[in-house]
Amino acid sequence: MATYKTEYSVSNKATCKGCSTKIDKGVHRVAIMTQSKDDITFTKWYHLKCFKVPKKGIEGGVEAFEGRDNLKEEDLEALKELLEAPPPKAEKKRTKDEAGATDEQSPVELKYKGMSVDKLKALLKANKQVCSGKKDDLVQRCVDGEVHGALPKCPVCEKSTLRAAESGEGFSCPGYFDSDAARFIRCKFTAEQVERIPWITDPSQAPASPPAKKAKSEAAASLKDDFKDLPPKEAALKLVEEAFKRNLSVPKATARQEVGTLLMATKDEEGQWDPEAALAQLAEKFPPEKPSAEATNPANTAIAAAFDEMGKLEGQGG
User: Fold this and answer.
1) 0.90 exceeded by the pTM?
2) Whole-angstrom distance, CA of residue 209 vs CA of residue 30
3) pLDDT tens track for 32-73
4) Which domains can be identified in the chain, with CATH numbers?
């Protein structure tokens, strides 16, 4: 269920999801907040004029907006007028040319919305940005990249590309999957501002990738060989097995769908499966579960059970 918020922008870092331009500091803005299954809150900010009220309206009207009591009287009235205005009449279906002429979307956004998913992914890959997600996600990353520049790699771990906060304020490193250690490594780097990299608009102009390091683990190379020439269905099933071997917390009900999506998004430059890259993103989304205490030697089973029982008693006592 969505919740709503209204306030004056505390900085100029957030991007309006309606017009894809920055919201200046001190400007009246509104937000839609949704929560994922993992209890992560996603916030989408809008200029007041760019905010579209759902057709069914918002239950409670202005009372549903957190922060309304901090607004100036004129801004509170503007929000009320927006919420109480009758919904716009349905327009007849427009041609592509007519739809492209709308003034509600920036030319940059229209340009990327007109591209295919494959072309969007090629651009993101050329700029070393995250390539997974739905088309709307890919479009927003490309728009942000062209307007503000590509996000750089983390200066601390030098492994992952930095991520912008959902609120649009601040950046952090998501961590990375260490194939040699076979575990996900978390990185605590955060920053309010980072220096962006010039956006490449033509994938053919992207600098050539450096040659693969000879020190690359034999296990990773062997895994890639195992996936070579596998059809999509078999590759997905094989990667699901590998994910469970590494104790990743992938939901069994949607494992094949999650894995299949990442496999397609992480193909290498030659169009081959890159299982380690897919596992790295999978581990970021579904970190390894902590194994329970188990005895590796059958003779020690009783001892392991005793330790487990002690842990439970301590938990009850604390």
Assistant:
1) no
2) 42
3) 988 766 667 788 899 999 999 988 889 889 999 999 999 999
4) 3-84 (3.30.1740.10), 105-205 (3.90.640), 218-285 (no CATH)
